[in-house]
Model the fold of this input.
Amino acid sequence: MQNSEYNFSKIEPIWQKYWAENGTFNAIDFDKRPKFYILDMFPYPSGAGLHIGHPEGYTASDAYKRFKKSQGYNVLHPMGWDAFGLPTEQYAIKTGRHPKDTTKENISRFKEQLEQIGLCYDSNREVNTTDPNYYKWTQWIFTQLFKKGLAYVDEKPVWFCPDLGTVLANEEILNTPEGPRSERGNFPVERRPIRQWVLRITQYADRLIAGLKDVNWPDSTKRLQANWIGRSEGAKVSFEIEDYEESLEVFTTRPDTLYGATYMVLAPEHPLVSKITTEAHKEAVEAYIEKTKVKSDLERAELSKDKTGLNTGAFAINPVNNKRIPIWISDYVLLSYGTGAIMSVPAHDERDFEFAKKFDLEILQVIDDANQAHKNADGNLNSAFTEAGPLMNSDTLNGMDSDSAQKAIIETLSAKNAGSVEVNYKLRDWLFSRQRYWGEPFPIVWVSQDNYSKINTEFKPKGEPIIANFNDEVQYAVVLPEEALPLKLPDIESYTPSPDGQSPLSNAHEWLHVHFDIQTGAISEQATENTVPGTRETNTMPQWAGSCWYYLRYVDPTNSEKLIDPDLESYWKTPDLYIGGAEHAVLHLLYARFWHHLLHDLGVVSEAEPFKKLFHQGIILGEDGEKMSKSRGNVVNPEIIIDAYGADTLRLYLMFLGPLEAMKPWNTKGIEGIARFLRKLWRLVILDNETELNPKVDSDQSTKLDSESERLLHQTIEKVTADYESLGFNTAISQLMILLNHLSKLDKIPKDTVEIFLQLIAPLAPHIAEELWMRLGHTGVISEAAWPVAIQEKLATASVKIIFQVNGKYRGDIMLPNNPSKEEALSAAKSNERVQAQLEGKQILKEIYVPNKIVNLVVQ
RNA sequence: GCCUGGGUGGUGGAAUGGUAGACACUCGGGACUUAAAAUCCCGUGCCAGAAAUGGCGUGCGGGUUCAAGUCCCGCCCCAGGUACCA
Done:
């Protein structure tokens, strides 16, 4: 505490308590006021507590919420906890403490820290993804996916991390110079085939692209999502393989270049490789496959800058001209995209060109470049020509443009049953299971084939049954009825996953083995004539599951009958503003959109898109300009700042650092300016060292502001209002500083002017604003007061400043009565001394007058 | 490589095509004080000058315009994302 007058550590807790106890910021269902739903990305309550990055976005949303409330909106601004996750489970493995208990402690620490910053949330609407009453509905959504045939089980080669004892998704893998590592812990990882649940997000790919045009998001984020989904239109073409029954399917976006296909390339893992490779090439090909297996995708990409590959000795037949072309393998072709095989057209694809050059394969130009392409002296291409153009070397299609040729070729192919139009996506289905304890259990029971046939179809997926092998026995998946939800996590002795990669739940024997009622789906411990024996699914859901739909539950957090009440849903709809980091631009936002579309199909929600407006707050870097991290030792702890300067100063400073969306370094020295600003505000209202009001503040309204001060006041109302609306808090604060600097120089200040100032700063510095508001004699809180509105007449001026320029350079200015004529302005300019000095001995070529703004004399 | 952002004083950053550097930090000088803190006043882009003022200045090179940090073309650098997507 540096100042005995403005005692923030005394007043801040008082107001925090007041807002909490009075539910000042609680939303009211079905209120007549217009609704406004503002959402923050909810945090993972880690053991480390709050990081300075959290309060940046959270302060912005808290300020915006207070602003909107003052403007007369019924504001919903909730907070919750994304509390399933690996660190808590790791901690449990280490200490044996139940993740439930650790989570509870972490949450209460987070809550305390958020409250200290003056962040207010509707406490009746807190959600916690690990609460069975919450995850009941996460499981319910999964049952809907299951029944619609949008979930399946697949044996997938996925990243396995022996140190963490779990499977990791691609997005949890870091590519380091030492090879692939786990994002958490930086442990080495390897590929292993494991039974996994997968969701068919690809079925929604087109709708997820289309929906992007209906949302107000940063363009860069929309593009990122569209690119991630990666829709490409083209054709599937099938090539016969010489001497084999099988044919080779490829996907191409350029069917018009089919005549230029001079060889084929298969991914080394392609199932046909071992079959078609000739004796002479077998040994080398097998060695190459082995080498590929140990490479990560990134190594494959990186090392293959210089392309590698081998001939299999086999030949394919081009369906349009029956040309015999060799089949190669190379790791630049990925099994996971398209069909895992390509037709190579080196003349018109850069990668193929490079490969053909390296292995001296034929390059046949089939698109006329009209002399645009780089060629060597012999007239051969120096690089691939990848644009469209008229065809050449293509029999009857010569001269036809690329577009028409694509259609013609696909038509020819489909007549021969050798090809068709095809759409491909980069997006892959969503790997939805983890071999962990601390996640939502799947409401699934596995039964034998015989027993499966006895079970009510209600518990089975639409379409194909879901089957998996357990110890060489085929099992069928059935889903639990809604009444059986939530399926709670059982208590277990050890949280350590078994070394075979199975979840720790596989050791919870009593929980594991159940009897499933074939009619009702009810689970019982004892067998009856209506039950069949089954085994529960031991995988749990990924952390994304709970965070995919939490924004809906805030609206109706305690409903045990429904995920969300339809009336409440139609009142609150979806968030009007979503603030969160750009690091979630793809995965979280895409998964949540997928589920929201699904819920829309199910009639649970009334709109297809969940987040109308999205804002990405930036990142606060350490004082050294680097990302804050423990290892760098540049982490700023918000609690220390609050102790030294108070929450209001921290809030203002976080917002003053720069634009909300920017990445900006923290600078502890700079906070002094904000601290001075608030002390100055305090002194404006309260007399030094006393609790009484500063006599400068005229409470009987006998003084009036002079017109210049009044104009500044209303300009400030206007600018601050507009800046808050666009989340431009940094410039709003500097405008408030200008006004305060001005007011503090006046001898007398009308009380209502001070009050307006307090209202304008209240969203950002709510504690001091409440305190001074009360001391000015108000019985109600400033949080409930209506937002001030600028009076247009007060903004008007009687005179206008005209800038003088000579050859575009500033040479002086003058105040003139409004709307001076061109003649008046010009003569004022010409009679200015500095202007005259510039005109000395020169000739005026042109006289520009921009009304009420500027005179520019062009001279020579 | 590709896709996004972005390059403005010693620092963070302001600027609907119209006075570049608002607002702060830092630093320097002064007032108040026994002293310090707090507070207040003055200065603070660079160069020349006692000052008035003048010249130069928004990554670099061109262009459009009476006027460009802002618009157009070409480069350089930095940060983030992505990884051969056929």
Notes: The longest helix of chain A spans residues 707-725. The mean pLDDT of chain A is 89. The longest strand of chain A covers residues 151-161.
